[in-house]
Design brief:
The complex is a heterodimer of chains A (289) and B (260).
Chain A lengths: L1 H8 L1 H29 L11 H4 L4 H33 L5 H14 L5 H11 L4 H8 L13 H25 L3 H9 L4 H29 L3 H7 L8 H10 L6 H33 L1
Chain B lengths: L1 H28 L10 H8 L1 H34 L5 H13 L2 H11 L4 H4 L1 H30 L2 H10 L4 H12 L1 H17 L2 H5 L5 H8 L6 H35 L1
Helix pairs in contact in B: 1-13, 2-13, 3-7, 3-10, 4-7, 7-10, 8-9, 10-13
Classes of the chains: A mainly alpha (289), B mainly alpha (260).
Chain lengths: 289, 260
């Protein structure tokens, strides 16, 4: 028993067991992240400066942040609404249970489907030579050049492929958690189905909906590979992640401060989005207790 | 009845959006020979030495990542469960930090922090950085599955029982804990495998000859082969994710009956 207690209570043992994990994180997560923040306010002589952050004011960088935020907002709100509808379908008892299970599994898979393969799938579908593009041309509808898969709306359409299922995956349990009694109470007081959804279900779900929408915003804002594979990293306005990537692969010594400032801007936006999401989730959790 | 119609309608619209790109990719990948459907693009891809090299590189990286991450996380999760439950909240916050730091920022930070050190100046060093990046990327998933696995088997009681019978720490770990959390390790491993095999950003920016960058490079010179590659990589990653989901469902069942 003495032995048991010594293993269970020993602070030294806890520290030793946790040390490899904490050292690993310090070396490969905390230190790099901290150094981005610190370096972005230092010049080459290691004096404090705001010059790096001022560089974020350049027109092409401002344009890139605005572009990425628009892309993230459109795919978060659009993907959020569509994902919510799909979540409703997956928990509705109108569909056979086997089909609902299959849809949940598919959403788990598709929400992880990002990057190069996703971009290729959309190029094969809606690229200049894509199957759907050709088919539409065959029936007399030329979608190019007014639409481009490599432009803003093309990126939106592609991002929705992982945004919608992510929303569905998170919201389906929340919708399933709506108590039957709430609906019965509303109906017995004379509420129609529409009134129940609008005045009861939606307000209860709203914190979860907003939390997940904020999560989707961050998800789109941090995406790199999908955008890179679609736009080739070049072209007019690019998303912020591509600008940061370019800072690594180009001659980093040319302007070391800019990369740090961009990465810091990214961390700030992501922290706001994920922070808002978890704060709203905490509010949402009150109803599911 | 009207509710039913809406559910089917949304399902139909969703199915169209989600199935068409997959079907189009499949069709595109079969069109390498003009006027007929053939497996030519697949033959070209599978016969190419560059494909085999990049595939093996990523496979190897995935295995190293899974082993390293398991070795790192099992003692951590174990000690949190058995001896330091108060640290749980701290660890829970730490393991979701990778969501706040996107891969492109992570690789930027790593490349800057270790510039002009052996980690960026040698092949081995870059590979170490790549694996480290992948451990960080997969951390939230890997930790959560190991943590859930330990919760399901009530690891604290198991450890106490084993200790009272005289088992040492090593014996407890290898003969009691590990065999009991195998399903969690498998599902965490498959998630990590899916992440590593499809990853582009970190590998490309560290100039590593991995599968993701190879796919992207192939697109600049070939038309149909990238689609064939997409189908292959889809089968791989989707196969592993479906396995995880099935395992997860079964583990959930075990948890419910075991907890009751």
């Amino acid at each position: 028993m003495q032995h048991v207690r010594s293993i269970m209570r020993g602070r030294g043992r806890v520290a030793i067991a946790l040390a490899p994990f904490l050292l690993f994180l310090a070396a490969f997560l905390f230190w790099p992240a901290t150094s981005i923040i610190v370096e972005s306010v230092l010049d080459r002589q290691r004096n404090l400066t705001l010059a790096n952050l001022m560089q974020l004011g350049q027109p092409f960088i401002m344009a890139s942040f605005v572009y990425t935020m628009q892309l993230s907002a459109v795919t978060a709100v659009g993907g959020g609404m569509l994902g919510l509808m799909l979540a409703y379908a997956t928990v509705s008892d109108a569909l056979p249970p086997a089909l609902r299970d299959a849809m949940t599994t598919f959403c788990g898979v598709a929400s992880n489907f990002a990057g190069v393969p996703l971009a290729f799938a959309f190029i094969a579908t809606l690229g200049q030579l894509g199957v759907v593009t050709q088919w539409l041309r065959g029936i007399g509808i030329a979608i190019y050049p007014s639409f481009s898969l490599y432009g803003f709306w093309g990126l939106c359409l592609t991002y929705l492929y992982f945004q919608i299922p992510l929303m569905t995956l998170v919201m389906a349990p929340a919708i399933a958690g709506l108590r039957r009694e709430w609906r019965e109470a509303a109906t017995s007081l004379g509420a129609s189905a529409a009134t129940y959804w609008w005045r009861v279900a939606l307000p209860i779900l709203m914190p979860s909906i907003l939390a997940t929408t904020a999560l989707l915003f961050g998800n789109a804002f941090g995406a790199h590979a999908t955008a890179f594979a679609l736009t080739g990293g070049g072209s007019q306005t690019s998303v912020v992640t591509i600008l940061i990537g370019a800072q690594i692969s180009s001659d980093a010594l040319a302007n070391p401060g800019l990369g740090n400032a961009l990465a810091l801007g990214m961390i700030v936006v992501m922290t706001l989005a994920i922070g808002a999401s978890s704060a709203l989730s905490a509010v949402a959790a009150r109803w599911t207790r | 009845m009207r509710r039913g119609i809406w559910a089917w309608l949304w399902l139909g619209a969703g199915a169209l959006y989600f199935v068409v790109p997959l079907a189009a990719t499949l069709q595109f990948s079969l069109q390498a020979r003009r006027g007929e459907l053939s497996l030519q693009a697949y033959q070209n891809v599978l016969a190419s030495p560059a494909f085999a090299a990049s595939f093996m590189f990523s496979l190897q990286t995935a295995v190293v990542t899974i082993v390293a991450s398991t070795l790192l996380l099992i003692p951590t999760a174990y000690i949190i469960h058995v001896a330091a439950p108060r640290l749980r909240t701290v660890i829970d916050v730490i393991v979701v930090l990778p969501f706040v730091i996107p891969p492109v920022v992570l690789v930027f930070g790593l490349a800057r922090t270790y510039v002009r050190t052996p980690l960026t100046d040698s092949h081995l060093g870059l590979h170490v950085l790549l694996v480290a990046g992948y451990i960080v990327l997969s951390l939230p998933y890997m930790y959560r599955s190991i943590d859930t696995g330990m919760r399901v088997i009530a690891v604290r009681q198991l450890a106490e029982a084993a200790q009272s019978l005289g088992a040492g720490a090593w014996l407890i770990m290898t003969r009691i804990i590990m065999p009991n959390i195998v399903p969690s390790l498998i599902s965490g491993g498959f998630i990590t495998f899916a992440i590593v095999m499809g990853e582009f950003t970190i590998a490309a920016l560290l100039a590593q000859p991995a599968f993701g960058p190879y796919m992207s490079l192939l697109a600049s010179s070939k038309v149909y082969e990238p689609s064939a590659l997409t189908v292959i990589s889809l089968l791989l990653t989707w196969g592993s994710i479906v396995i995880i989901q099935l395992l997860g469902r079964r583990a959930g069942g075990v948890g419910r009956t075991g907890g009751a």
